[in-house]
Amino acid sequence: MVDYLVHIDYVDHFAWVVLDADNLQRGLATARFVRLTQPEIAEMAFGTVDRYQGRGIGTFLLGAIGVAAEQAGVTTLVAHVLEDNRPMRAVFAKVPELGAGESYQVAQRVGRVDHQVGLARQEHGAGIQRNGVRAGTVDTE
Q1: Alpha helices (H) in 30-130, listed in sequence order
Q2: Helix (H, G, I), strand (E, B) or coil at 72
Q3: Domain count, the chain
């Protein structure tokens, strides 16, 4: 399992890592997507050290993983969140206000909540927008 998690090709398996600025050997959070058998769909996953939760890192990574997925040709990101994982459910609750997706669907299952974010390529690149501030990439061609 460790081998799978650390061998990232940045096409079908992409990850962002947040490091502690005071100790670059200490990881604080990760976000990744793994492309599924349908190449336009990828599953995303997040992890944040407990004492750093609630500081906006997960929300930031949600936008960052969306940008990376769009650039890789992914049109839909899915996530399966345990029902009692309130911090991650709070991050996903922000998807509509972030403008992070063309469409957003939530399905309640027994013990989990499934999230599906349809990514929309923007006219001038990929990314998210919040309060008039855009984060992402810009096409230069």
Answers
A1: 57-71, 86-93, 95-98
A2: coil
A3: 1
pLDDT given at position 122: 54
CA distance 87 to 90: 5
Residues 6+ apart with CB under 8 A from 58: 29, 31, 46, 48, 87, 88, 91
CATH number at 72 reads 3.40.630.30
Inside any domain, residue 122:
yes
Q: Which residues of the chain have pLDDT under 70?
A: 1, 97-102, 120-141
Distances (CA, A) of 8 to 5, 34, 70, 112: 7, 9, 17, 27
Are the C-beta atoms of 33 and 74 separated by less than 8 Å? yes
Give CA–CA dist 126/139, Å, rounded: 8
